[in-house]
Amino acid sequence: MKKKFIGMVLSLSIILTAGVIPGKPVFAASTLNVDCGTTIRGVTHCASGSLYGITESKPSDISQIVAPLKPNVFTNPALAGSQNQQPIGAAIPVAGRLTNTTGKVMIRLADIYPKWPYAFTNMDDWIGKVTNVINKKKASGYSDFYGYEIWNEPDGTWKSTSVSFNDLWLKTYKLIRSLDSTAQIIGPSYSYYNHNRMNDFLTFCKANNCVPDVICWHELGGSKNISNDIKDLNSLEKTLGIPAKKISINEYCDSDHNAEGQPGASAPFIAKFERNKVDSACISWWWTGAPGRLGSLMASDTQKGAGWWFYKWYGDMTGSMVNVTPQNDNSNGVDGFACVDSSNKYVSILLGGVNDGTVNVSINKLPSFIGASANVKVEKVDWKSKDTPVSGTNLVFSKSYPVTNGTINVSIPNTNNTSGYRVYITN
């Protein structure tokens, strides 16, 4: 009995000493390594765009709401109306609204047809409708188009028994090349990446000289698979003898679609897109009653949400993107992306993701303009829901760090999974 009591006291002592609550899992602090000396590429804001995020009238103020995000690509229906898949948001008028921004429009041709899966009729009808869209696009005089996405999620929406998807792809590819020869052709736009399916598609395309200019698929289950999916595609291209193509992930979202546009969920996506040099990526659109909200970056038609402020930080990035290494590239855990601007003399690091509350950021090979002492400002933007307006960002702390061998270590306590953070460094 005495021996058992001693054991209980010892166990309790260990628990109290460690500061651990019985039954609660113990996690190590998350770490992130930023290598300011390794440039990935110039800033592109590749992931700043959305699916149906802009319509003919929403958001109403392009100059104040859209332009500051330095948007890249928006995916919009080729046509909109009662006879089409989407009632509003047609690509050509949206392109007209974006003429004074960095934004470009990807034309989703499949949205010519209504219903879900799409109510495809026959090839003659399809070719006539696509020809009409191409002619309208060319006649518009707008130049801010990213290209034509031939079909959307054929792995689930191609139901024709008289025409194969490959036949549709080949004939549409040839049509676009004949009518709009310099336009980018985008596909296959699968609902998720699958090695065998992509291999079959690219094998057909290689054999029939119809490889897309931009290879596209969706990542709607979180960011954990992105890097491996891209590595697999790169391997397929080498095996098939296809020169590396641009990549577009024109629908991306956390597996919990309520987190669409959430800063904490968005950070690992953007980090992996930047690290893998993705050409474009669009936030998804799960809220069918609310198009025109930039993929839930807006809390309403006129009010900014937390996501808007996080993507504004992203839009503010200039100079060159540099390498960031997370603890686990194949997870939804803490990840980040960073830029160095030697002209404006700053380093900006954005981060977020699933974490235990403390994130340690090791920043190495700081540029010489930072000097012997780095002024560091850490800010955050908090999120409650996609419909909750947010008025701005908040300062976590601001302090000076001595630079040792080009390195500083910044520890951010009390972080959470839904907020986004910025580490901003000047001399």
UniProtKB/TrEMBL annotation:
Residues 1-28 form the signal peptide. The keyword Signal applies. One of its GO terms (molecular function) is hydrolase activity. Keywords: Hydrolase, Signal. It comes from the Bacteria. InterPro entries: GH. This is Glycosyl hydrolases family 39.
